[in-house]
Amino acid sequence: HLLVTTGALGLVLGHPFDTVKVRLQTQTTYRGIVDCMVKIYRHESLLGFFKGMSFPIASIAVVNSVLFGVYSNTLLVLTATSHQERRAQPPSYTHIFLAGCTGGFLQAYCLAPFDLIKVRLQNQTEPRAQPGSPPPRYQGPVHCAASIFREEGPRGLFRGAWALTLRDTPTMGIYFITYEGLCRQYTPEGQNPNSATVLVAGGFAGIASWVAATPLDVIKSRMQMDGLRRRAYQGMLDCMVSSVRQEGLGVFFRGVTINSARAFPVNAVTFLSYEYLLRWWG
Ligand SMILES: CN(C)C(=N)NCCC[C@H](N)C(=O)O
User: Ligand 1: which of 25, 171, 218, 220 to mutate, judged by most atoms within 8 Å of the beta carbon?
Assistant: First the structure.
């Protein structure tokens, strides 16, 4: 419950930053973070920042359980040591990386449909329904999921899933390596890291993994928005090539600043609750 509650709290607080990131990655109307924030606030009010938030909250339990559960169990299989024994016999970084990649790979498939719906809703720039104004294409998350299913079939719900998998598999390895590496650096041998260490290591693990994930995050978001009207890209590679041709290499780092600001607190609390859970149950 703790992992779910703190995960959900982190998501709510981080969602406005995520919305700005997604808009910067997929729309060309904004000049930067501040311009994007001002425009959202003016046209869509504060509520504009919270579009598309309900499905991530509803799915965080499943997604985090798959990620951390698969990670822990893969580590268990690879090292043949329980969590308690692991402080005395720390696993190698290769094992941590492989376990992280496995967790990332499997959670990507659970995450894909929820992430697609989040991105589609975040990109609707219409203000809240005013009498006489045309309604947005999607009325809410369930309507969005049903419309995609109706218009594009079940595979439509997995648009961008391939880019998401490629994004998450190696970067989740980086996520757990950064976390473990920093914890070990600042914890006397054989002891558990203290809360401050866990928070800082978790925060930096979030930043490091998201910086590495940003190029494919941009491509993933663009693939998810493609097909809304006319198809612009033939596939992932085509999306990469045409994005670079039109906007230069900088396109691969769209949204990296605001996403890092979001990643620190979100992942600090995620790891804190993960450590508590392991100590209670481990
Ligand atoms: C680089 N990636 C994909 C990650 N580090 N993901 C794990 C963190 C997930 C967390 N809910 C977040 O959104 O930051």
Answer: 171
Residues 255-269: pLDDT tens digits?
999 999 999 999 998
> Which residues fall within 8 angstroms of residue 49, CB to CB, at 6 or more apart?
15, 16, 19, 20, 40, 41
CA 133 / ligand 1 centre spacing (Å): 37
The torsion angles phi and psi of 219, rounded to 5 degrees, stand at -65, -45
Q: Does domain 159-281 bear CATH number 1.50.40.10? A: yes
Q: What is the pLDDT of residues 210-222, one digit of tens each?
A: 999 999 999 999 9
> Where along the chain do its domains lie?
1-51, 54-125+138-157, 159-281
* Phi, psi for 44 (deg, rounded to 5): -125, 0
Residues 6+ apart with CB under 8 A from 103: 66, 67, 68, 69, 70, 71, 74, 172, 176
Distance 120 CA to ligand 1 centre (A): 19
Which ligand 1 atom is the nearest neighbour of the CA of 217? 3
In angstroms, the CA 139 to CA 279 distance is 43
Model-level pTM?
0.93
Nearest to 281 by CA among 41, 132, 68, 120: 68
Amino acid found at 221: S
53-87 pLDDT, tens digit per residue, is 999 988 888 898 899 999 999 999 999 887 777 77
- Tokens 């919270």 — which residue? 50
Give ipTM to 2 decimals. 0.95
Ligand 1, residues at Cβ distance < 6 Å: 168, 171, 175, 206, 209-210, 213, 263, 266-267
Q: Alpha-carbon distance 165 to 53, whole Å? A: 21
